[in-house]
Design a protein that fits this description.
This is Nucleotidyltransferase family protein. The termini are far apart. Strand 3 and strand 4 form a beta hairpin. The strands form 3 sheets. A 4-stranded mixed β-sheet has the order 1-2-4-3. It has a two-stranded antiparallel ribbon with strand order 5-6. The protein is of the alpha+beta class. Helix content is 40%, strand content 17%. The chain folds into 2 domains: 120 residues, Beta Polymerase, domain 2 (2-Layer Sandwich); 69 residues, no CATH class. The relative contact order is 0.13.
Amino acid sequence: MPESSEPPPVSGPDPAELPQDRSQAILEAAKQIGALLKRAGHPFALAGSVAVYAHGGSRYLQHDADFAILPEDAEAVAATLREAGLGVRLPPEDWLIKTTCHGQNVDIIFSLAHQPVTREMLDRAHVLPVDSVLMPVLSPTDLIQSLISAFSEHYCDFGSVLPVARAVREKVDWDAVRAACGAEPMPAAFLFLLERLNVIDAQEGQP
């Protein structure tokens, strides 16, 4: 019998090891970076949409993975990423560094809503499983406060934060959020919207 002229199959990664979709790829990136930061002993907390997922929110992730670190640890974290073979990019913004993992962007942030990340904020983080990997995750109150505090006349995307507020509303100290940013026009407008939609209770003394 003549030998087959077809080339032998090319071996490749096990399909079971490949991310099934964009959301899974983002989770894989978050897990790898989180494990790396844990092993290196850097104080940190998962932030952004993956943090919302860890607190029980939607698994539909279409952005990057975000981590909060202390400002004074930025250079040490960058060195840890480089030692792990990950490239580090310094964007024009002076409040984060960027890397790429599993083809997904990862933002390492040391200032949330124009306020430096503090040790107290990281101490309030909840240790939660992120797709089976335990890591510190920003508390729901700090997470919501950072999102709402970012609203301004130039950026006011209520639609992206509304589902987040719905997902974690029972875990948030809304009085603390109001005290921190409720005096500003755009955060106040968003809080009023949440009240009108019955996502949160109206502030005492208000109709």
